[in-house]
Design goal:
It is globular, with a radius of gyration of 17 Å. The chain is α/β, with parallel strands linked by helices. Helix 1 packs across helix 9, helix 3 packs parallel to helix 4 and helix 4 runs parallel beside helix 6. The chain contains nine helices and seven strands. The protein has a seven-stranded parallel beta sheet, with helices on both faces.
């Protein structure tokens, strides 16, 4: 059953990793997908081809969502060509890790720009059309680090904690307007971001996860698609953990 047939979703940072998996799973469920990316044209075009192979439409936009003018240009084009979107997945994120005393102002600003200002720029431009339609799904991809803190990631963790607060606040504001807002909070997941972890450290991490392994991007995608679906119409303002039991709230 294509439970999202007829819907259109924008997924930021969707050319690889968790974002790509979410875009593909949305396509599996009949959703047309707009792929936002910031760097690799080749990766974005491969993602586009994989989505279209599932029998849905896909459009790609290269835009740095941390840059307000650049993001607004993308949003304006989406409003003109698609008359808005039904689903926003704020997935794009970067990390610039360093212990706090060694962290530069540039590292701090860069991570906050993409991870926190980016979702503001995207959502602020597209939310009015959702409210006009009285239907929408906003899904923010957070992180376990935003709930527990993470050594050497003061900048990254504060953005993910901020996304959770943004989720709960916005959910309250639009709950009666047909729009739900939720966070998906992955733990350690097999992506490019974790591929560089030394093997000994990786073993230490997995031994601390009750399920004994890292998550897969597809498992995060399944949670995101569920909260995008009609089945989740009474779920809003939640931080949904996908972390193998490493953090329980």
């Amino acid at each position: 059953m294509k439970m999202l047939k007829g819907k259109t979703a924008l997924v930021t940072g969707a050319s690889r990793g968790i974002g790509k998996s979410i875009a593909l799973e949305l396509a599996n469920n009949g959703c047309d997908v707009i792929v936002n990316y910031a760097h690799s044209d080749e990766a974005a075009n491969k993602t586009k081809a994989a989505i279209e192979a599932k029998g849905v439409k896909c459009t790609i936009y290269k835009a740095d969502i941390s840059q307000r003018d650049e993001c607004q240009k993308m949003v304006d084009d989406i409003l003109e060509k698609f008359d808005g979107v039904d689903i926003i997945v704020n997935n794009a994120g970067i990390n610039r890790d360093r212990t706090f005393l060694k962290m530069t102002c540039e590292m701090w600003d860069e991570v906050l720009g993409v991870n926190l200002n980016g979702p503001f720029n995207v959502t602020h431009g597209l939310l009015p059309k959702m409210i006009e339609r009285n239907w929408g799904r906003i899904i923010n991809i957070s992180s376990m680090g935003g709930q527990t803190g993470s050594f050497g990631q003061a900048n990254y963790s504060v953005t993910k904690g901020g996304l959770n607060a943004f989720t709960m606040t916005l959910a309250r504001e639009v709950a009666r307007k047909g729009v739900t807002v939720n966070s998906i909070s992955p733990g350690y997941t097999e992506t490019d971001m974790t591929s560089g972890i030394p093997e000994a450290v990786s073993r230490q991490i997995t031994s601390s996860i009750p399920m004994g392994r890292m998550g897969k991007p597809e498992e995060v995608a399944s949670a995101a698609v569920f909260v995008a679906s009609p089945s989740a119409s009474y779920i809003t303002g939640q931080v949904i953990c996908v972390n193998g039991g490493m953090y329980m709230n």
